[in-house]
Amino acid sequence: MKRIADSTVRRLSIYLSFLEEIEAHGVLTTSSDDLARLGGTTSAQVRKDLSFFGSFGKRGLGYSVPELSSALREILGLGRQWRVCIVGVGKVGSALARYAGFAERGFNVTGLYDSDASKVNHRSVGVVIRSTDDLERDIRAGKYDIAVITVPAENAQAIVDRLVKAGMKAILSFAPTQLTVPEDVELRTVNMAMELEALTFALTNRS
Amino acid sequence: MKRIADSTVRRLSIYLSFLEEIEAHGVLTTSSDDLARLGGTTSAQVRKDLSFFGSFGKRGLGYSVPELSSALREILGLGRQWRVCIVGVGKVGSALARYAGFAERGFNVTGLYDSDASKVNHRSVGVVIRSTDDLERDIRAGKYDIAVITVPAENAQAIVDRLVKAGMKAILSFAPTQLTVPEDVELRTVNMAMELEALTFALTNRS
DNA sequence: CTAACTTTGTGAAGAAATTCACAAGCTCCG
DNA sequence: CGGAGCTTGTGAATTTCTTCACAAAGTTAG
Asked: Of A60, A65, A91, A178, which sits with the fewest C-beta atoms within 10 Å of its C-beta?
């Protein structure tokens, strides 16, 4: 299969969130033009994005909302449950563990890890916090599909290296630092500093 | 000036964070090759990115770390203080208000707003929480350069519309929903759902 | 059934971003 | 001082992404 661009995947997420919204309002059909308007792109882009995966619409009519949203969920891999562990149960980590939207989308936080001995064996949102010493063992046992790391920047690469070595293939990092992983590991980083800098750049250079 | 691509600005942030790191370790010079290796790109890309803004290196030698990092700070608009307000003092909002890295980079959280009357007039991190009713007045008074919104998805667009109408030009949203703003307003969204979906897409389609 | 009207799906064209490749400039060493 | 050795800065080539534009296919009205 042709390599799908990152930007395409992002847009699919956006389309899906609209489809779910209008589906909840009982809308039955929509068009590439609607999706484009709401998603801030063009109708040609919407159709091109979808065309990588097949043909979902009816000419002259548009798309069936339930059909297309279901297809997108399948494409994005949301048609199943994912077992997620969170490494680093600080402010951000516990906020994430508590986040309801997580479970709704099929992401089950089934493991919490922290290196702070005073937190270990306590519970957060009904899940026992384990020592990071147990990480490798649990990952090797195949307990998780995705790891979310919310540890300080200075520990992040070390944790990532351990996760990767133990066989983790998908990592979402909230550490404000650039991380390196092998080609076959999927890493995404949520970096607020970078987003703020994009804002200040715009304010400084485009006004 | 030629329009600078978003991807370029992102990379500049990455370069800067490395430069600051090695600067702290006393490293005095570096090369496009070093920056490329650490930032996961190519040396030609690094040089091209920098070339949009001028000529910062010495042929045969590379870049002066202090000079280049200072130049990048200036380019990214980090050479000054920015006044930030946070709208929505829930879990995420108060975690952000507390975040130390914020102030280090010149971002001063000087205003907190919430619509929940039971929070108003209480303090968080030394800042009094005001009612969102006061938002327009304070923005019009020019109190803030940047607004960070951490409100529920369903309220986000309404808040953004109010911010924009009152004259806010830069907004960072943590609401998991697509938002619309006029052309002259810079909006960035941190959307964890989207990042997770990029991961599950990769796990589903590339393995 | 036919004609007018929609909207998709997709090659082709165009634009944008990345990579190549090399001349130009600087340092260092003998 | 001159030549060998680096590394930058940048046009040109290439690749990737987006937009255009239109045939194909369906719908609706008469």
From this structure: A60
Q: Is the CB of residue A89 less than 8 Å away from at least one CB of chain B?
A: no
Residue A57 CA to nucleotide C5 C1', Å? 18
Place of tokens 């946070």: B86
Give the angle B33-B35-B36 at the CA atoms, nearest 5°.
65
Tens digits of residue pLDDT in B96-115: 898 877 888 899 999 999 99
| Amino acid in the structure at residue B180 | T
pLDDT attached to residue B23: 96
Q: Note which residues in 14-43 of chain B have CB less than 8 A from chain A.
A: 14, 16-18, 38-40
Beta carbons within 8 Å of A145's beta carbon, 6+ residues apart: A82, A83, A84, A170, B203
| Contact call for A14 and B199, based on CB within 8 A | no
Contact B1 A38 (CB under 8 A): no
Taking the C-alpha atoms of residue A97 and residue A124, their distance in angstroms, rounded to an integer, is 8
User: Which residues, in sequence order, are CB contacts of B128 under 8 Å at separation 6+?
Assistant: B112, B121, B122
